[in-house]
Each structure stands twice: as structure tokens, then as C-alpha cells.
Amino acid sequence: MLNFFAIFTIVKFRVREFTSDYHYSILAPLTSNILFVIIFSTIDRYYSLSNEGLSFMQFLIPGLIIMVVAQESFDNPSVSIVNSKQIGSFDDFLIAPLSRVEIFIAYLISQIFIGLFLGMINFIILSFFISYNFFSLISFVYYLVLVIIFFSSLGSLIGFLAYRWDTISTVSNFFVSPINFLSGTFFSISALPDEFKYILLYNPYYYLITYFRNSFYIDAKVNYHINTLIFIFVFSSFLITTYVFYRGYKVIK
Length: 253
Description:
The protein is mainly alpha-helical. The protein is built from ten helices and no strands.
């Protein structure tokens, strides 16, 4: 039986912590996205960068939104867990009357709230730069939640197993950032040579970004086969992290 009161307490604490550091957690990624838009809109004024029937700004902005949410979903739980280990407060979680799986669920739920809030803030502000022919709030929330679950599961896993900031930086620099930049955030699959297209065709995260982008412009039919594979991919990451938290492998030194 889950300890819902403890989970709610952790969620409330982490959401309050996120909003209290708004200059770092909200304003910084929003400013970065606005700078991306200003730079690429200036370039687009002199070069034709249209993609898949959309202007480059229409193509880019959904990718920027999902990229900043993905990065924050990884950074927030991983940094929080490692920091609590270093100052000793994670020991308080372990001796409290709640399981390690409940700790992970609390981190995951809080990150869903944080990620959706961050995504909506970026969506509202960046909407001033483009117009939408179609917008599906259900698809927007659904695919954004899947992204949050995947990256927050990964972030929680790394934070749970790591003890140093170097480990988090290594995973962020060599996995999280590359997968965000190379999964169709800034370019369409049609821009790649044929011999490199398999990089995206067999990348589940590319389809997540594609369907998230479609929620802005296209009332597309749901491809149940691909969506099932996406769900299995995300759910597998959740199960792996849940299992590691359950086993408690190398939780503290």
C-alpha cells in the first residue's frame, strides 16, 4: 500500500523548491529558447530553412519546447538526489516510513507537474513568434508527459546510482544533449542523406518529437503501431528505474 501522504509531501516540497528557484529553473531555459528563436529567425530571413511544408520557426519551436522540458526532467531529479546524498538528507528519506519505490514515484509525479508547467510557459511565450493552424492540447500533454517520464526516470536512476556531479555531467553531455539535438529538434529526416536516415528511423525519441510537433499543426491519424512502441520504450525506462529503486543497489556509501 502506497504512503500517499508521504508522496504528496515530497511532491509539494519539490514543486515549491522548483518555483522558488524560478530565475534558474524557469527564466533561464525560457531565455535560452528565446535566444534560439531570435538567432534562427534572423538566419531564416536570409536563407530558406523551411521543413515539411512549415516555416523553420514553426518547425523549430515545438522542438525547443520538448528539448527544454527533457533537459529539465533529467537535471532536476538527478541533481536533487545527488545533492541530498552529499548533504546527508537522503538518509532521512531512507529511514522514513516509506519505500524507495515511493520516493521514486514522488520524484516522478513532481517532475510531471514541473515539466508540464515549464512546457506551458514556453508554449505561451513562444506563441508570440508563430501562428498555429491547429493545436491539440490532448496530444501536447500526452507526448510531453511521455518525454517527462522517460527523462525523469533516467535522471532519477543516474542520481540514485551516482555520488558525484561528474557522473551527471557525463550522462547529460554524452547522452541527453546529443539525443535531444540529433532526434529531429532542429532538422527534418528529409535533410539527412539516405545512409544516415536509419539513425532517426530506429530512434523512438524521434517519433516522440514528431508526434509532439504534429499536435501543433496537423490533425493527423494516430499510428497505433508506432505509438505502442513509443509507450513500451517509455514504460520500460520506468520499470527499470523502479526495479533499481526497489533493489536499492548502492544507495548510500
